[in-house]
Design a protein that fits this description.
- This protein is an all-alpha fold.
- Helices cover about 90% and strands about 0% of the residues.
- Helix 3 packs antiparallel against helix 6.
């Protein structure tokens, strides 16, 4: 009987050991799959983000050339803005290179932070590009083009909401309605620029540039939300 009990204990121990080994192997497989999924996600994000940074580089180069042509006295503040934008661009690039070291939990939060910083960088860059036009007609033309671009981008989002369930997209419909209202106010301000006195123009110019950048920022944030929550649209 004693030998029988020893045999049972031995068999039980072996079974437990094999079970633990099997569990460990399954866990290792699942961990490897998770690491592979994260690596693929990081690679895809890095590729998309790098394309955005290349566009930023192109606009920064154009802006720098315009600032250099304007001379030191006319472009002192803009030159500082360009330097600040370049610094932020480089910081985002450095952070992009470290994404592979992040866990799955850290990756989501880091991606969101980087995308929001990129939105801020892009809108500040657009504002600086607009302010680089110091002549009335050049500024007016650039502002009108900016408004048309925002109009087209809002229209594309409105098209995405067509045919969607009212409850699922109600928040986005309200958001786009607010953007349309802001766009209408901007169109009125831009129209006033062509008839403004020199003093009025200087004041309106700053307001229009700031309001355009603010609308652009809100629009980009809305796109970001939609992409993060595709089920809502």
């Amino acid at each position: 009987m004693f030998m029988h009990m020893k045999t049972l204990l031995l068999v039980g121990s072996i079974g437990l050991f094999l079970g633990l080994v099997g569990c460990t192997e399954q866990q290792e497989i699942e961990m490897a799959e998770t690491r592979n999924d994260v690596a693929q996600e990081v690679a895809a994000f890095q590729e998309d983000f790098e394309r955005e940074l290349q566009e930023v580089d192109r606009h920064l180069q154009e802006l720098s050339a315009r600032v250099d042509a304007a001379g030191e006295a006319a472009a002192g503040e803009l030159r500082e803005t360009v330097a600040s934008l370049r610094e932020e661009r480089e910081e985002l690039a450095r952070q992009l290179d470290t994404l592979a070291d992040h866990s799955a939990e850290e990756l989501a939060a880091t991606r969101d932070t980087m995308e929001r910083r990129l939105i801020e960088l892009e809108t500040e860059l657009e504002r600086a590009r607009l302010m680089a036009h110091t002549e009335r007609e050049a500024f007016l033309q650039a502002a009108e083009e900016y408004v048309r671009d925002l109009d087209q981008r809002i229209a594309r989002l409105e098209s995405r909401l067509e045919g969607q369930a009212e409850a699922a997209s109600e928040a986005y419909r309200d958001r786009l309605a607010d953007l349309r209202e802001a766009q209408a106010d901007l169109e009125e301000k831009v129209a006033r620029l062509s008839h403004a006195t020199r003093q009025e123009f200087e004041t309106l110019r700053d307001e229009v540039a700031e309001d355009l950048a603010d609308l652009d920022r809100k629009l980009r944030e809305t796109v970001h939300r939609m992409e993060e929550d595709p089920g809502a649209v």
